[in-house]
Specification:
The protein is mainly alpha-helical and 429 residues long. The chain is built from 22 helices and 5 strands. The chain is globular.
């Protein structure tokens, strides 16, 4: 049965894999296309928000398989399927493995050329190794997790809470991580400076400063994934009902709290610490805590087991319907797919496109349109037609300077396009 679940999880992750890269994925692609292994660390990382391991992994992968959309995403697919296996190894629960396999949110990030699927695998494996008390391998995976994504470090306190007589072995297991961060410290300081500089800004708010809304979105997105409804009232009702259902199952797992304290701590501690940190650093976005999603489903599965056999069948149908429905809607509906920069590149032809700021250009650069990107001061008299990017302009051009300059030059807006969240205005002189 578990191998059927793994195959099913793999099949789901291959559907609609050939979407356009969105902006952050394009960043990953350009990093591995333009930087060598050492340059990723020395040239790219100081201006980024993440440790370098994921970029090094896909750099190695791209040397063999290239930098196409599917090729770049396949490592995340593999990491996602392996996570299903690790969750099963932790609990021997086929339901927990099936829920992870069919999770709309986890499918989404198992299809993304970013580090979130990898860090979820590594943290899940850390939990498994801690249960098996395999401290040497634990120390290696801890280093890898810490060098993949910083929020993963929030898992460390749970091991100390439960350490007891193993505290000396646990302490020794931190040595590779300590050495790694000692060597990484100069670059980490530069990244922290970049992170702190966004606090209180529009960009910082977009990245995820603390708010009750951002915190409340975490369970909703864990359950429903990336889908939503145009009718916000309907979405609120559906989100409330499914949250009550899954929340009740998690609550029922409290009955066996002594034997699953690690799973509960895995879910709760990183979220609480992340909320506290997000007052100073913008990390309060649900996808940054994808690595606690397996704990959520493990608790749901344990709560399900506490029902009588008669009710187990009913509840099983309900939770699988929620998971499969949200996943299928995402997979078959283009409106829930990623930003369509590829579609924009095709529609753009050879027309110049104005970006309000010297950023957010990575996707069009990946799709070989970088030479057509200009700022409003570079518009020439021969340009009878120009396009204006309205992508997050509120953050990078809040005074709307680029639009006003274009219109002052005698251009009139003739059309507006929306490539799945990438809004573009067409101007003709």
């Amino acid at each position: 049965m578990i191998f059927l679940i793994l195959i099913f999880g793999l099949v789901l992750r291959l559907i609609s894999l050939n979407q356009s890269l969105w902006l952050d994925e394009a960043t990953s692609a350009l990093v591995v296309r333009n930087f060598g292994f050492s340059e990723i660390i020395t040239k790219f990382s100081p201006g980024d928000f993440h440790p370098p391991l994921y970029y090094l992994v896909i750099r190695a992968w791209s040397l063999v398989f290239g930098t196409g959309e599917v090729a770049l995403r396949m490592p995340s697919v593999i990491f996602g399927v392996l996570t299903i296996w690790v969750v099963y190894k932790i609990s021997k629960s086929k339901l927990a493995a099936l829920l992870v396999a069919t999770s709309g949110l986890f499918i989404y990030y198992s299809q993304e050329a970013r580090m979130y699927s990898l860090v979820t695998l590594l943290v899940s494996y850390l939990v498994y190794l801690s249960l098996k008390k395999k401290w040497f391998l634990f120390s290696i995976i801890l280093l890898l997790a810490g060098m993949t994504d910083y929020p993963a470090l929030l898992i460390i306190p749970i091991f100390w809470i439960l350490a007891k007589k193993d505290w000396k072995k646990l302490l020794v297991s931190h040595l590779p991580l300590a050495i790694g961060y000692f060597l990484w410290w100069p670059i980490l300081l530069k990244q922290l400076f970049v992170g702190f500089s966004t606090v209180g800004s529009n960009w910082g708010n977009l990245l995820g400063t603390f708010s009750l809304k951002n915190f409340a979105l975490i369970p909703v997105k864990f359950i429903l994934g990336r889908i939503s409804f145009d009718n916000k009232w309907l979405y609120g009702v559906v989100a409330g009902l499914v949250t009550l259902l899954f929340g009740y199952l998690v609550f029922r797992s409290i009955k066996i709290i002594r034997s699953i304290r690690l799973i509960w701590l895995w879910l709760v501690v990183p979220l609480v610490l992340g909320a506290i940190i997000s007052f100073k650093l913008p990390i309060m976005s649900y996808f940054r805590f994808l690595f606690v999603l397996p704990a959520f489903y493990l608790l749901v599965a344990l709560g399900w087991e506490s029902f009588s056999r008669k009710w187990q069948k009913v509840v099983l149908v309900l939770i699988l319907v929620v998971n499969l429905t949200s996943s299928i809607i995402y997979l078959i509906s283009p409106k829930f797919h990623r930003e369509d920069w590829r579609g924009l590149a095709k529609a753009l032809g050879r027309t110049p496109i104005v970006f309000p700021a010297n950023s957010q250009k990575e996707a069009l650069t990946y799709y070989r349109k970088g030479d057509q990107i200009i700022n409003s001061d570079q518009i020439e008299k021969k340009d009878k037609e120009v396009w204006l990017s309205r992508y997050v302009w509120e953050v990078f051009d809040p005074s709307d300077t680029a639009r006003r300059k274009i219109e002052d030059l005698g251009y009139n807006k003739t059309n507006e396009y929306n490539f799945n969240g990438v809004v573009i205005w067409k101007y003709i002189r």
